[in-house]
Amino acid sequence: MKKTLFFFLAGLVLASCAKSADPAAETVADPAGETMTIFAGIPEDAFTEPSVSAEGATRLSVSDAGIPSWQTGDQIALYNGTGFVTFTLADASTGAFSGPAGTYTLAVYPAVIADSVNGEGELILNLPAVYGWASDCTNAPMVGLIENGECTFYSMGGLFKFTFSNIPETVNALHFASSGRKITGTFNVGVPDPGNTVIPLENAETDAEKAVSFSLPASHASTMTFYVPVPLFDDTFTISLSSDDGIPSAELSTTISVARRQMRRYKSQDCAASLPDKIFLIGGCMQNDWTFSENHVLVKGENGVYTGTETITTGGEDWRGFKMYMGNDWGATWLSIDEENSSYGNLIPYGGEAYKAAHSVADTQVYPSVLGYEDGTYDITLDLINKTMTMTPASEPEEDPWLSAYYLSGDIFDPDWGWPSPGTVGLTLQKQAVGIYTCTTYLYLDHSNRSFKFWEDTNWGGEYKFSGTYNSSDHSFGIVKGSGDPAFMPYDYGYQASGYYEIRVDFKQMKLFLSAVIN
């Protein structure tokens, strides 16, 4: 049967018998002396909507048809004039709750929310902030007055019911937060009057009063239904599932309108459907480097699976990695992989700073060369439901359009604007990978006019110069092919100490990187 989402609303006026508003006004003495039984029921029209009948229902779990019923082991709290005593359901078929003998006038379900009755006879409830999940537990707050060993329960608030599907095994909690209304903590519901008593609408004074959560068992189904008790009100909620791997599994925002004699149905929420449409790839081994781009994304398909094709360029360097962001800005949640348990062809994604801190993860990027991936173009598949990621070569290795070496010249070197002698490695950019060239040489940086360029041969052929673009975040200079100015003048960009430097040219990104060599 297809799962649906309901609202269960506050109780109706008791038609069969009117009760005193004072919870101490009527008492029942137990003839047995040591133990006693209270028979608890739910009136036929306590939870109604068109075409849904509750006739004959005597228990409290909620069927797909919207029929409430009791469950063996349910507990109610009975008031004895000074405090609450817990009774446990011994026989689900009869609604018979057993507990110590005494004089009781007021009953509350579930027992854990019964706080106290003040001197004015007003009922105080304490709605929990954390619930343990159970497949047929509704936690619907109800109240009733006891007469002749029987108690008829009526709802005091709404019950928000919804279902998540495609839940990853790693999900360990659900979070439910209102935009401003209080849904947890202490509530004064007033003098009990079955059918009319409601949990009052209040504005939350703290963030903690706006949020409840469900802790999930370590092993759970992929489809689960949740019941959240709420006051009678109108508010917007954010609902999310979180995983122990830090990857958000689902999130939705919906407005809940709760009123008397009203029940609403909603469709199931698919975890995969609530994930973002794109995952953005960004990093030092990507062609867009550390800049978000619509050209470098994984696109969501069915059931939380994302795919895309990306060219990886590391030049054999193990520090050139990438991250995956669930949005195109730095504030979005980022994803990475479990470095300790991942290997070539077996990547395990995780996500976020919370996971990094909890698991003492030292770094946050995917480093292709560390995992054995060579430079090239890859088809990437990321499955956020089953927590897998693959990188498969998309084609044959790319054709190499660049030369085996390039040559530096300028008055920043020795010789001044000369060419290196045969065998002089310092002024030759040696190939490290497709499109990647490096050399380490001494730079004379005693004044700002010292500059350099590089060429395809030692006869001033194939000249490359500075494009005029310098990126201070990664210390890169843009390069263009062509003669004339401007040449590279490192002094103007803070490089003012003579010494040995590594020069790295990346033709795929058309950038030159300059970094001091620390002895």
Can you give a write-up of this model?
With 519 residues, this protein is mostly beta strands. The chain has 1 helix and 38 strands. It has one helix spanning 352-358, and strands at residues 7-8, 35-41, 61-62, 68-69, 75-79, 84-91, 96-100, 106-109, 114-117, 123-127, 130-132, 142-147, 150-152, 154-155, 158-165, 171-178, 185-190, 211-215, 224-230, 234-243, 250-257, 269-270, 278-283, 297-300, 305-312, 322-325, 334-337, 349-351, 376-383, 388-393, 405-410, 428-433, 436-443, 452-455, 463-471, 476-481, 499-506, 511-516. The strands form 7 sheets. Strands 28-27-26-23-24-25-29-30 form an 8-stranded antiparallel sheet. Strands 31-32-33-37-38-36-35-34 form an 8-stranded antiparallel barrel. The protein has a 7-stranded mixed barrel with strand order 2-7-6-5-8-12-13. A hairpin with a 7-residue loop joins strand 34 (452-455) and strand 35. The termini are far apart. The relative contact order is 0.10. Residues 1-32 and 44-68 have low confidence and may be disordered.
